Fold:
Amino acid sequence: MPRRSMAHLMSLGSQVAGLTSPHGSLPRLIPTSSRYSSSKPKHGFKPGKIAVVTKTTRYEFEQQRYRYAGLSEEDLKHLLAMKGSSYNGLLERHNIHTNNVDHIVKSLHKEGIDVQVVKRGEYDSDVVQWADAIISAGGDGTMLLVASKVLSKDKPVVGVNTDPERSEGHLCLPVKYTRKFPEALGKLCRGEFRWQWRQRIRLHLEGTGINPTSLDLHEQQLSLEQHSQAHRITTMDNQQKMGILNDSVSKPSLLPIRSLNEIFIGESLSSRASYYEISVDDGPWEKQKSSGLSICTGTGSKAWSYNINKLAEQAVNEILKIGKYQTGLDIPLNRQFIEKVTDEYNESLVFSPEDRRLFFSIREPIVNRVFSSSRQRGFASKVCVRSRCWDACMVVDGGTSFEFNDGAIATISMSEEDQLRTVLLDN
Amino acid sequence: MPRRSMAHLMSLGSQVAGLTSPHGSLPRLIPTSSRYSSSKPKHGFKPGKIAVVTKTTRYEFEQQRYRYAGLSEEDLKHLLAMKGSSYNGLLERHNIHTNNVDHIVKSLHKEGIDVQVVKRGEYDSDVVQWADAIISAGGDGTMLLVASKVLSKDKPVVGVNTDPERSEGHLCLPVKYTRKFPEALGKLCRGEFRWQWRQRIRLHLEGTGINPTSLDLHEQQLSLEQHSQAHRITTMDNQQKMGILNDSVSKPSLLPIRSLNEIFIGESLSSRASYYEISVDDGPWEKQKSSGLSICTGTGSKAWSYNINKLAEQAVNEILKIGKYQTGLDIPLNRQFIEKVTDEYNESLVFSPEDRRLFFSIREPIVNRVFSSSRQRGFASKVCVRSRCWDACMVVDGGTSFEFNDGAIATISMSEEDQLRTVLLDN
Structure:
């Protein structure tokens, strides 16, 4: 057991629920269903086999941890109290979630649908293969994980927010369906819904310094140490399976994962600068030093990428103030106007989930004699990145991590077949 | 030995030189010596005992690594070639550095000064105690480390850039003195210089989840795994020494370190969001979720904090374009004007090294139903932070790292006695 104070064993506050989407998503600034195109189904949708993938609640997570640490349930309660968390509170959220899962499963059974309930840790390509459709029962993080393993655009994925009071659930159905799931099923059956396709990212990896075996960051709640260790252990177990040796140059391999939000590339250690080379749309390679690189989809343009690029009113106020002073023009600087300009700027960062373009953002570029940056962000069809990092990772949707060290080359692109088929139900 | 491909053993490119200051510093946009106050010395400065602290060159670093890995010098050459680096190139930079160190030492000896040459890994409070003044022989990273252990404002620290072609050297003397050190010594002796005091940050740590033993990030070139492991090993070795137990609440302890650039607080894993509470100038505690928190000095306002807050012309152009459209005013949008406004905005982020205020910046704040942010950045006299993190650290000047997990409380402030005494010589 890692030598940590008992106090450390209890932490996270609302993190487990929130951690799955480190940067979550925007509150609904823009009515998504009305703004982006979607299509009416040709007929009703009544799948024969549905897999329900459930999140790990914080209560379950802490239980697993205390069992591992050899603590009793009484110890668990005590430790949680010490950290200002409540055992009863965690249990309550856990029960809310499991009751909502039961509600979903019962509703499905009532319609004669064959159901397989799978914990997120057990969810794999065999489950995807078996199911006609997959329901994510959790929050946005669970939805991201569920979607990541669905490679086909014909297999629908539906997210149900099993704890609306705690989860943002931007990728999930409207919250009313959580306790009225039969209503959702009825609409699906009668074709009273629209299909929405969310364009996703595909990844090719090649070169030295790669490790095609990924790590699930959420399931494992890893410390930095465990993160690197886990990368190596899974490598040793799977090396032959993957047939790729780390110290030989290998041809580009398409990873069996699709990204719904974004790819983040950077040094694993948050205080270390990332060195890499980037080529946008087959342009010239450019050496860069920054805090990392984000490449997002339209769906992801409301998530981490949004947080990287958005401006605070404070900054907009300052820009307009300087503009006013420099020009002598009567540019308004009242709160209302600043808010208006800020909102318009920030909204311009968001684009359609169906857009076939990627959006790359260099986070905190470091410009000096050696490193330059022609464009800090922009749209592209393809982005290639060559790592010059020491101990970096490529993180998919904040949840799945691949080693990406010096010599590795990633090609990040989109293909029409990578779309995720999801369901739009009216509120 | 960590299981890494041989290819991985060779990496970093120019990182070792650059890594010491992950975010380096701005090119000299602002003539520092003329803009900020400094003071004429009352008399010449001729210390009897000088410690010269030297950086670890990349060549030395790779040598240490290959010895550890059991590789021969021939293997080293081969691996470097594979990574596109040059053994001869590294050796050349190493020789340039060591020749410059020899030049400094000879110049000091010629003046009858008692000299102790110390590698950065051996530099400690005993060396500081012994010396009348300390010379940092390396780049900005070495200067940051050297300064961090000097707690008194009476002990001068002078930086000499031992590889001007590769190092930015913003905290060092003008580059001409690297090969003409006797000239610098002469001026010091005759009082033909000015003292400059750089205000620094002091840290108090308390609560559960702290570990007052720090980790030198540069000396160890740690992977994530080694980072956490090292934190724990040093804890076990030093626990009794420090007299602080992790699982008991302890009174605030003033750390034996001062920060010249900034404190960064956040999850160690770059893709994980940081949860914490912050209180500015004894104001109310505010829960926050973000990519981390930076608190910098005037000196540091040109370093990482600058990179976090600066805007690209792209963004400024967009703001002014929106402002123009919204007001109908004839706001210029030509390249020259955008550049002017951008430069003015970015320059406003920089403040005097002698300023006794801290500047805090919340990096990528995540605003949703639960978390809000009243001010994204601003000046303060004191900032308190309570960690709600899983595996976070408090990093001083990008080089020294302290564990800072759930329950830990840091008080970040400045005191007049924390100033660093440095020397200003004319170009």
